[in-house]
Amino acid sequence: MANETATDMDFFHIECAEVLDISGVAEFHARCLEALGTKQSLRLNASQVDRADTAALQVLGAFIQDANTRQQVVQWEAPSEALCQSAALLGLSEILCLPIVAESSQ
Questions:
Q1: Global pTM value
Q2: How far apart are CA 85 and CA 76, in angstroms?
Q3: What would the pLDDT profile of 83-106 be if each residue is shown by its tens digit?
Q4: Is the torsion defined by CA of 45, 47, 49, 53 positive or negative?
Q5: Which structural domains are found in the chain, ordered by start?
Q6: CB neighbours (10 Å) of residue 3?
Q7: DSSP characters for 34-63?
Q8: C-alpha neighbours within 13 Å on the C-beta side of residue 6
């Protein structure tokens, strides 16, 4: 009988850096392409992200859309508040499948 529960080994893991910005977007994009090539389910660990700029979020959006087209599951593993807020500010929360966070009052 097949195991119906996905295990950690069923996923290709991508660790997101503390800073997702244009300076590292080419390397991050290459890692995303490698992940898509595995045809496995994908898990993004974004718990350490302190800052994400528009370029990185655009790459993430394209990556998630490509994965969806290929019918590869993408799961977030503890997306940081900073990542969720950056996505929300740019109106990308839904595309990135991230929780929508309220703007922090300062």
A1: 0.82
A2: 15
A3: 999 999 999 999 999 988 765 544
A4: positive
A5: 11-96 (3.30.750.24)
A6: 7
A7: HHHHHTSEEEEE-TT--EE-HHHHHHHHHH
A8: 11
